[in-house]
Amino acid sequence: MGKTIAVLTGAGISTSAGIPDFRGPDGVWTKHPDQTSVYDLDLFMSDREAREYSWRWQKESPVWKAHPGVAHKALARLEKAGMLTLLATQNFDALHEKAGNSSQVIVNLHGTIGTSHCMKCGQEYRTADIMERLDQEPDPHCRKRMPYQGNMPCGGIIKTDVVYFGQALPEGAMEKSMKLASSADEFWVIGSTLEVFPAASLVPVAAQAGVPITIMNLGQTQYDSLATQLIHEPIEEALPRLVDETIARNPGQ
Q: So where's the catalytic machinery, residue-wise (predicted)?
């Protein structure tokens, strides 16, 4: 087998696609700390007004109109070249999927906004369909018919598959990411401030396994000292270049 590369992406890869980050200097939560409540699980489950606000806020997100940028497409090329074994992402914008990366390599550490589920019966919904009906149903509830309840609708609260505060990460997501990050030939961190755990812990895990680490981020991170290569350039320029150079150095994988 040829060279293998594991990747962790954060908000920085999507800012060039028009999606503001949360924690950077101009981040949504840096400027509006009160808006973190949009993703508070307890509040969402217990308060109808909070749910309606959360749904409305998510509907207005630039995510719905965003298209993958050149950086996203570069990672799709890396997978096509047979080198990408892991694409763990802290983003829930589903842009890696739209760019052409496969579910074989993508691990959505913080979930995805593309799908939603009923918190009671587990029925899955396409979030875009819910958003289309949001004016008629500002507080969406599950419409699945329950045969053992006289065919009445379930009525459970529906929530997007984004991981909210107070909610566990998707099952097996960190375990799979740790395994692949520590067994790859290289580990790249693209556009993550490395402030959010457990995702950030992938860096020391890879370092301990002796995997060379590249951190590509405009700002500094707490794990810069563990990196073999630091790249402080715009991601939309630096990542396509890094991918192309890596593929060129490893032809015929």
A: 110
Q: Is 50 annotated as a binding residue?
A: no
- The CA R_g of the chain, rounded to the nearest whole Å, is 19
Per-residue pLDDT tens over the stretch 9-59 = 998 998 877 776 554 545 544 444 455 577 889 999 999 999 999 999 888
> Is 206 annotated among the ligand-binding residues?
no
pLDDT confidence of residue 30: 44
Question: Tokens in use for 194?
Answer: 């490395």
What is the rounded end-to-end Cα distance, in angstroms, of the chain? 8
Give the pLDDT confidence score for residue 252 in this predicted structure. 64
Q: Is 142 marked as binding a ligand?
A: yes
Cα 116 to Cα 150: distance, rounded to the nearest angstrom: 25
CA 156 to chain centre: 26
d(CA 55, CA 143): 17
